Each structure stands twice: as C-alpha cells, then as structure tokens.
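Annex B. Sample input.
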Amino acid sequence: MNINNKTKKKTDLLITVILVFGIFLAVNFISYSIHFFRWDLTENNVYSISDVSKNTVKKLDDIVTINAYFSGDLPSQMLSLRQEVGDILAEYQSFSNGNIVVDFIDPKDDESLKRELQMKGIPELTFQVFEKDKRQAVNGYMGVEIKYGIKSEVLPVIKQDTRDLEYQITTAIKKVSSKEEVIVGLLTSHGTASVENEISAAYKSLLELYSVRQVQFNEEQKEIPSNIKTLIISGAKTEFSEDEFKAINSFVVGGGSLVVFENVVNVSNQLQATDNISNISTLLSKYGINVGKNLIGDYRSGLVPIHNGFFTMPTKYPFWPKIENEGFNKDYSAVSSLSSLILPWASSIYIDEAKITDDNFSYLLSTTNAAWKTEGTYDVGLETKPSGTQQVYNLAVAVNGGLKDVYDESEEQKFAAGRIAVVGDSDFITDNFLQNSPDNLTFFQNLVDSLSLDDDLINIRSKVVTSRPIKENLADSERASMRYLNIFGVTIVVIAFGMIRYYLRRKSKFIDQI
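Annex B, continued. Sample output.
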C-alpha cells in the first residue's frame, strides 16, 4: 500500500512539474508575442529603453529598417558588445508593433558591400588580438544604419561604452521618420559668424536635416518667425536693443529653443584680448545664466601652430582648454559619447540658482581642477602661468525648464515654455578649428538636435551602472561585516535553504514509512 502511494505521489509530482513547465513556456511565448515585458531592477534602468524610446517606435506608421553590421570573427572582448546591441535593438523591435525590422549582417568577404559601407561612412576597423601566442591584426565592422524610405542615418562605430546608445538610436529614428519640417533659425545680424566664411561646415551640417532660415534684426524686423523651432546666435559682436531682447524673450516664452555661443572676450591673432561689446549676456543673466567676463586657462589644452622659419611646431596653449573624459557630463546624452573637444578662448558659466533650480539645468562641459581664469587685463600669452585659485570651471550649460518670462510685468509670474543652451565660446565651430577637432562639430550637431527634434529627447539619460561603495562613516568592524556579508551572505542563504528543504523531505519520507 505504501509502495503504491509513493509511486502515485511521484507520478503526480512529475505530472505537476511537466504541467507547470508547460504553462510557463506557453505564457512566456504568448507574452513575448503579444506584449514584450521584463523587469529592470537597476536604479537607472541600465538594461531597458526609456518611455521616450518606447513611445517613439510605437508612433511609427511605416517600416524602419535597422541594419547592424557586425563581423562574425570579432575579438572575444567584442562578443558581449554584439549581444548587448542585439538585446537593445530587440527591445525597440518588440515595442514597435512590427514597424522596426532588425537585421544583423556580416560583411565577411563581400567587397561590394564593403565599398557600400565605406560610402555610407561605416569604416572597417582594425583590432589587435592574440592568437597562438602572437599578436595579429583582425579587420571587422561594428556599425549601424537606420533607414526609413529613402532617408537614412548611420552610427559609424558602436563603442564598448554603450551608455548613450539608446539616445543615438532614438535620435536617428526620429530624424529619419520625421515628416514635419523642422526650421532652424540662424541670426546673421549683429556681427555674428559669417555663414560663408567662418561657419560654413556647421551651416552645411544643419542643411542635411533642417530647413535653415537666416534671421536678421533691423529697423523693420524685430520679431522671430513663429515657425522657427530653434534660434542660434553665434559670436555676436554688436549690441542688441531692448526691443530685440523682448523679441528673443517672446520666442523662448512661446516654446522656442535658444542656442547662444558667446564670446565675452575677443582675442586677435596677435593675442590681444579686448571686451566684446555685444550685450547678449545681459539678457542671459536675466534668466539666471551668467557668462563670466574672463578667459579660462587649463593645463589640459589644445595645440597651436608656432611658425619658426621653415618649420611649424605645435605648442600647447593653455587658453584653448581641451575637454576630455570627466569634462563631459556623462548623464547628458548629447555630450556623453564625445571624446575630445577644444574651446578656444572660452569663458566660464554659472547658474544663479535663485532664478533656476538645479532640477532644470545641466552643466555640459567642464575643465580639469587645474584650470584658472584671467580677467581685467587678460594675460593670454603663450607662456602665461596659472594665477589665482585653480579649480573646475563650467563652460557650457543647458536649461530645460523653469525659465521665467523676464519681461512679464503682471503679478502672476509666467514661465517660458522654451529652453536655452549656452556655450562660453563661439570660435569652436569655425571652419579653422573644426579641421583639427571634429568632435566640435558633433557637439554642435548633438546640441541642436536635442533642442530641435523633440522636447522629450532630453529625458533620455545615459545608462551608467551606479557604484554602491560601503559607507565611509562606518567603523572598521562594521565595514568588514558588511563586506563579508556581501561576499558570503547569498551563499549561506542558499545552503540554509537547501538544508531546510532536505530536512523537510526527510521528515515527509519518515512519516510515509510509518
């Protein structure tokens, strides 16, 4: 009798396990087919796309094709990157209602495809690998093309640090799928940088995506057309009138985005520095954005060509601060992927937090902690040494809300619907500087894109795993206990669970035998 009961229990248990497993597979398959869902328990949702990206692909009304060109024989350290890219693209695909098609393509020995990729701007990369105790060079591809009809956007190289990959993909999808004409205005009065002779490369880059309208203030025209999404003011050299300030303010209040590249100090080729008479910084200060009347020097700096007879010798020049690594705000996707940026003769920027709260602004670029400022007489020679306090200075800021209507005289204060980005330098996007610092142009494009394409792009933050060190104020014994608990705690819990389960099974078996 006992033997029959045991056999029956084992059979019932086996059937139950099979049924549960079958139900789990069925539910998993149905849920994946109908609605993709998974939990991401990380603090910053590192392993899932944001609501902005989900809504972007849900609104697509036609097919967007994403071709991921990854070589099959990539070095082992790159295999996890391919898997990570595949996971991210699969999530886009799952939320797109069938309008995202993803295809991984290995160019291999297809020479015609390789030539096509070169024309599109996706380069063939060279990797150093060790095989059979020898260092060898291996060629391969790690690029992505996003296509919608005849329009396409390319991510030439997917970096191992994928914290801003979502931002890049969503921005590209918005670019190719947008049916609305986005108009960017470029102020060409007040001595701003010449479109033909100074910022032609930046101007051409705008034309690739936007309709660009040149805006001038004069006696007859003191308003900004309402169909302009973003207004760029680069390197103004003359004063603005109060009426022109009011026109700019009305534009921002109405939801327009304002980008200002401001030279507070002009520096000649002979390194003579003089105050710029443009007063655009006066308007910015009304909002709470203050551009210092100074020039920032930094030990980490760009190179200037020094001519010595028949030779040209590159020499580090401290007043061309070079932004690298920690100098980019890693939480702001428009700049987090940049690797190097030079801002010649830049001025510091700081926010008046009595006018703008810290929830509404982000510093984008900053110097090292070995930077200093010169003001007043502006000593900007090649041999200038640090003077005064050395510290970190912020050189660019983006304000994404909380701006007040500075010309509103009513009792109930109105707030502006637009946004403002300010860089304490305008020379960085001139044609001369772009030749040796291509990331300058990328920064310019990303900044304009983040303000012009959609307001919600700014909500896509870089994905970064947060460090959780043991608190410093704990005693040594407490810190040691926490450390050993982290290391062995899970193991102990699993062992304890196993022992309890073993005890219960033995007890149940003993009762059955009775």
